[in-house]
Design brief:
2 copies of one chain form a homodimer.
Chain A: H1 3-14, E1 21-23, E2 30-33, E3 38-47, H2 58-75, E4 79-89, H3 96-109, E5 115-123, E6 128-136, E7 152-156, H4 161-177, H5 191-202, H6 208-217, E8 222-226, H7 230-241, E9 244-248, H8 256-265, H9 269-276, E10 281-286, H10 291-295, E11 305-312, E12 317-321, E13 324-327
Parallel strand pairs in A: 4-5, 9-12
Antiparallel strand pairs in A: 1-2, 2-3, 3-6, 4-6, 7-10, 7-11, 8-10, 9-11, 12-13
Helix pairs in contact in A: 2-3, 2-6, 4-5
């Protein structure tokens, strides 16, 4: 069990039971009985030098902070409605800085009709952005805990792009500081592919429409957003459901840009995907008869869905390859550990 | 207009209208139409070295973070129900640190039945605690904007104690660093009075029961919690209501501990109260016929209520004394300005 999951377990032990708390700490969002139905509520902190570089543009920080919260609601099959935005920042940056963060968050919220209703400002020695977002699930809220043996595992989009993008940002910064010529920098990586990786890191696309589809249709048994790495997040889904998640190596979708940059960096693209994090794709379990429906992506999802594995009896998350199964449930970012792959 | 209020005005200009947002940014909490009635939602950040000293105990940080959010809901006449708690902290402090922050918040929440339902953890270079808290108003939510000429102004408790307590903390730290004997330190300040001031600063008591009484009875026209100083917060209530707030100097309640420590420090206790902040008392406007009911405090309020002034036509907040009126609407803490009284 990872340190942050261990923390959540200890925290849960402190909480008195409450009939109205349908899902408490430990899933992508909380679910609270409220009127006819339930509120689905999430919150995420973004911290300078941990989640973004000090030189990141304010609007991009705001867009990303909202996106990661939207992704949590998507993983619960829910429609975002309202959010709070709090910002700590160095006073010398002036009022324009938090306004630009807010503009970024608003630009991310607008397509989904989510409204900013309040927040707080404080000075501080580093930028910290905290968002709380809530909405409602049109169907039963989708949790991490309903996967059953026999289900298939599906994943949206092209994982690993965000981790590759972050590494590319660092490489470009290092080149720039050495006065290298700006282009071409990476053999085998086109300017479009560079852009694709950088965008995936800086401005990830939350899978709100796909999450709502899953929630409305009721076809997924369990879902999680892949924020810390496919390995650890598959392990979390497995643990919450009391099953084993089997990721099939040859099914993991690797886009050309990730494959090319993995070559440049001399790493295994699949390992990158397992440990990478920050992708904000949805991993979900659904019965085999839904596969055709899911693999024929709808335009409004904005991405494809790939079958990446299956749910079996047992525990943990494994990568199944030609040489057998490898435990991958500990690959990925732990917010309480040091020296994890993408967040030095 | 203060810089942080200016920020809120600029932010509001960015927000599209929404029928469900009954009160948006700029009051103590937001009010959102939700089911039969409305949700009342607030959030506050607490930042190390800004809102608390680096050596503050984790549990106390959690208690205070929850208290200031509870105070916002109290000022809206609302009952707290659920909260989210996010914590950024230095990893070397270990898991015990955020757990102690959570225990502190839970200990503050428990008497009011407010439940922790989620949150987020991150590493960071300084401690930042972010809470989002929501509940419902049993009556119509109380805002800052309903005060009318002819209303009286009332204030709970003994303002100025928190500001005095913070100064006392600093004095004690300075004495300790000089190797002075621990007691007696301040002529005219008993150990009980020292404790009273330190407690008011470290562990303020949100006026939840009083706020609920005001909300349920519908006798207050407007309310605000005094978080930044009686001067600036009276000015905010006046501005939101389109009236003038008149604080009568001889009515401002000055407890013995504040008076004694103000003597020691050679400051005017009333100026301290106007500019002090962090008191989390409720300032509210109510018609004259309610005065008897309000001034005969109920035990469950945990404090007294004092009539401190009146609402007149006009604008701004003034202190009315023997020598006329003095504008006090700019006295207090501005989170975007430097060198404000109690938050160096």
């Amino acid at each position: 069990v990872r340190r942050e999951d261990h923390f959540v377990e200890k925290l849960r032990a402190l909480l008195p039971p409450s009939e109205r708390v349908l899902v408490g700490p430990g899933d992508d969002a909380a679910v609270i009985a409220e009127g006819p139905g339930a509120l689905v509520v999430t919150t995420d902190l973004m911290v300078e030098s941990v989640d973004f570089l000090p030189e990141e543009q304010a609007e991009m920080i705001g867009r990303r902070a909202l996106a990661i919260n939207l992704s949590d609601l998507a993983a619960m099959g829910s429609r975002p409605e309202f959010f709070l935005l709090s910002i700590a920042f160095r006073r010398e940056r002036g009022e324009e800085f938090p306004l630009a963060v807010a503009r970024g968050a608003l630009s991310r919220a607008e397509p989904f009709g989510a409204r900013l209703v309040g927040g707080d400002l404080s000075s501080g020695s580093a930028t910290v952005v905290s968002i709380a977002l809530w909405g409602r699930a049109p169907g039963a809220p989708l949790t991490r805990s309903g996967a059953r043996p026999g289900d298939l595992l599906f994943l949206s989009g092209w994982p690993g792009r965000a981790a590759a993008g972050l590494r590319l940002v660092r490489r470009l910064a290092a080149f720039a500081s050495q006065g290298s010529p700006p282009t071409p920098r990476f053999v085998g990586l086109s300017p479009e592919e560079e852009r694709e990786l950088l965008d995936a890191h800086r401005d990830p696309e939350p899978r709100v429409a796909l999450g709502l589809f899953l929630g409305q249709e009721g076809i997924a048994h369990a879902a999680i957003d892949v924020s810390d790495g496919l390995g650890v997040d598959a392990g979390r889904l497995a643990r919450a459901s009391g099953v084993r998640a089997v990721l099939e190596r040859e099914r993991i979708p690797v886009c050309r840009a990730v494959a090319s940059f993995a070559d440049v960096e001399a790493v295994d693209a699949v390992d990158w995907i397992l440990a990478g994090g920050d992708d904000y794709e949805l991993l979900f379990a659904a019965p085999p008869e839904t596969a055709a429906k899911l693999e024929s992506a709808r335009p409004e999802w904005g991405t494809r869905v790939t079958r990446v594995g299956r749910v079996e009896e047992g525990s943990g998350a494994v990568l199944r390859g030609r040489h057998g199964d490898r435990d991958v449930s500990d690959l990925g970012y732990d917010h309480l550990e040091r020296g994890t792959p993408n967040h030095e």
